[in-house]
Amino acid sequence: MDLSQLGAPREHSRKLICIPVIFYKTGSKDFVIDYTTDLSDGGVLIQTETLLPVGSKLELIFKLPNSIKLIEVSGEVVWVNESQHDQDPEKLIPGMGVKFLNIDPESEKYIVDFIKTIRESSVLSDYEKQS
Predict the structure, then answer these.
(1) pTM of the model
(2) Collapsing DSSP states into helix, strand and coil, what is residue 115?
(3) pLDDT tens for residues 56-104?
(4) Which domains does the chain have, with CATH numbers?
(5) Residues 29, 37: Cα–Cα separation, whole Å
(6) What DSSP letter does each residue of 71-97 carry, written as one string?
């Protein structure tokens, strides 16, 4: 992970979400099922101990909650957090950040709308708590 990027503004709005994701290295038939930690229209954080090297191309398959559309997208590993068994396990989640490549417009719209809906409902929730 490039620590110089920490604290820099993000290009895409993210949402914390834990959903199953299938991924496999492009060209491979061996797949892994793990979970997302957060999601944006630009990429996803996959919580996994099955790490691929930075720069690896992979294929992802997942479904958003309350959606019937299966999202299939290519991606590239842009950073990796290796498991640090000697550190506080709550501070570092083993996983990898994956940037979406060539996402189709319909899938991107599903993700953007999902994040927007979740964000609006959480703002409403915060407002209702104050009332």
Answers:
(1) 0.77
(2) helix
(3) 999 999 999 888 889 999 999 999 998 766 666 555 678 999 999 989 9
(4) 3-130 (2.40.10.220)
(5) 24
(6) EEEEEEEEEEE---TTS-TTT---EEE
